[in-house]
Design goal:
Order of helices and strands of chain A: HHHHHHHH
Strand order of the largest sheet of chain B: 6-7-8-3-9-10
Number of strands of chain A: 0
Structural class of chain A: mainly alpha
Structural class of chain B: alpha/beta
Shape of chain A: globular
CATH architecture of chain A: Orthogonal Bundle
CATH topology of chain A: MetI-like fold
Distance between the termini of chain A: 58 Å
Number of strands of chain B: 10
Oligomer: heterodimer
Strand content of chain B: 25-35%
Distance between the termini of chain B: 32 Å
CATH superfamily of chain A: MetI-like
Radius of gyration of chain B: 18 Å
Largest sheet of chain B: 6 strands, mixed
Radius of gyration of chain A: 21 Å
CATH class of one domain in chain B: Alpha Beta
Number of helices of chain A: 8
CATH topology of one domain in chain B: Rossmann fold
């Protein structure tokens, strides 16, 4: 008989781990969104000195497992660059850099979804480039990319578990520590799964709510 | 009066416009007639700074225009073939956006201009409608209203009837005539002979990037044999 009562005693540690997971996901989302937006715009550039390196970066980051990227960044690239952060911060950065490759493509699809005719019309009417971006491109692009972005952020919550590969004690690592002490894996894994599910469902709900707001803004 | 002098344009070595020259006095219509790909739309795009000019000059009322600044001066405006309305904005907002953000008019003044224009073009009850909720003819009129709101001296219309049924062609013709009556110099690029037949204009037949024949439409109607190339084009397209 599986003893689920162990979850009660494990809950504080799991909750602590969940907060770390959320912090990693939030940090990686921020890095992914800002760097991904930059990559997405550069990827669209007609300047090959911009678009070719960006294409190589995106291909590399999307074509290799994050499980390898995280230790590679944390133990080789960041120290080589002289970045002396905690492993948690380094793992967050690594996950964010990976996510940026995916988010860049989401941003790019948003930009290309707006007809070039509308951009020409804005130019003909005398709108400056930033005004065209702000009043024409952005409201329509956000409405297009919001569902894919929310999906990417949900993925990041789950991907935060990969920070455990460099010994960051997030939700999954907290669970494995408890299991190594109690030898009672099933209830703890179930508890971890339920917590991830609660986190992703909550984010999905918040995302849907924001999407409605964005649609409202984009059409007004 | 709009004067176009010796305009040429090439794309990647392919000559699209060859020494195009024409004059469009205020209150008149120039009808650029020709098959697809002869350079009609390119000429309109050059005038609106949507493509850079290779060689040539454009003068408005005797003054040489710097086409790179034409979008801020609003002396030339364009109505696109596919209207290019802003899908996320209402009909009113499509008109007020440039009035507020470019001409820096107040919201109240912009709203008033938009309402007047919408009423003038038979869209008074469509102010809160989005482009997707409008018919082809209504979109066309909204696109015209959006451009005319900036009070250009020259209005370019690119294939204005390509997305409309024959009944609406009559409405477009009367709208264009109405705009010319208001004193605008109008350039229409089209291969639609039925539209041409409804306008009093000067016809410029274009072939391979050059104007090959010019005719006043009234004279063309009575003496088509004097303009053999235009006559042949019309015969082949009507």
């Amino acid at each position: 008989m599986i003893d689920f009562s162990i979850i009660i005693t494990a809950l504080p540690a799991l909750a602590r781990g969940a907060l770390v997971s959320l912090a990693i996901a939030a940090g990686a989302s921020f890095i992914g969104l800002t760097f991904g937006a930059l990559l997405g715009v550069c990827h669209q550039s007609k300047n090959k000195f911009l678009s070719i390196p960006v294409t190589c970066y995106i291909t590399l980051m999307r074509g290799t497992p994050m499980l390898i990227q995280i230790p590679f960044f944390c133990y080789y690239i960041f120290p080589w660059l002289g970045l002396d952060f905690s492993l948690a911060v380094k793992a967050t950065l690594a996950i964010g850099l990976n996510s940026a490759a995916y988010i860049s493509q989401i941003i790019r699809s948003g930009i290309t979804s707006i007809s070039s005719g509308q951009i020409e019309a804005a130019r003909m009417l005398g709108l400056k480039t930033w005004q065209t971006a702000w009043y024409i491109l952005l409201p329509q692009a956000i409405a297009v990319i919001a569902p894919a972005l929310i999906s990417e952020f949900i993925t990041l919550i789950k991907d935060s578990s990969l920070a455990s590969t460099v010994s960051v004690v997030e939700l999954f690592k907290e669970g494995t520590i408890i299991i190594s002490k109690t030898y009672n894996a099933i209830p703890i894994y179930c508890a971890i799964a339920v917590i991830y599910l609660l986190l992703t469902i909550s984010l999905s709900w918040i995302g849907t709510h924001i999407q409605k707001k964005v649609r409202h803004y984009a059409s007004h | 009066m709009l004067v176009i002098k010796n305009i040429s344009k090439a794309f990647k070595g392919r000559q699209v416009l060859r020494n195009v020259s024409l004059e469009v006095p205020s209150g008149t219509i120039a009808f650029l007639l020709g098959s697809s790909g002869v350079g009609k739309s390119t000429l309109l795009r050059l005038l609106n700074n949507l493509e850079p000019l290779d060689t040539g000059q454009v003068l408005l009322n005797g003054k040489i225009l710097d086409l790179t600044k034409i979008n801020q001066e609003h002396s030339i405006g364009m109505v696109f073939q596919h209207f290019n309305l802003f899908d996320h904005l209402t009909a009113t907002e499509n008109i007020t956006l440039a009035l507020e953000k470019v001409l820096k008019k107040s919201s109240e003044e912009s709203q008033k201009i938009a309402q007047n224009l919408l009423a003038h073009y038979g869209l008074a009850d469509k102010g809160n409608a989005y482009p997707a909720q409008l018919s082809g003819g209504q979109k066309q009129r909204l696109a015209i209203a959006r451009t005319v709101a900036l009070q250009p001296a020259v209005l370019c219309l690119d294939e204005p009837t390509s997305a409309l049924d024959p009944v609406l062609t009559n409405h477009v013709a009367s709208t264009i005539t109405d705009l010319a009556t208001q004193g605008l110099s109008i350039l229409v690029a089209s291969h639609d002979v039925s539209l041409l037949q409804r306008l009093t204009c000067t016809v410029y037949l274009m072939q391979e990037g050059a104007i090959v024949e010019t005719a006043p439409s009234a004279e063309l109607a009575v003496y088509p044999e004097r303009y053999p190339q235009i006559k042949n084009f019309i015969a082949g397209h009507s």
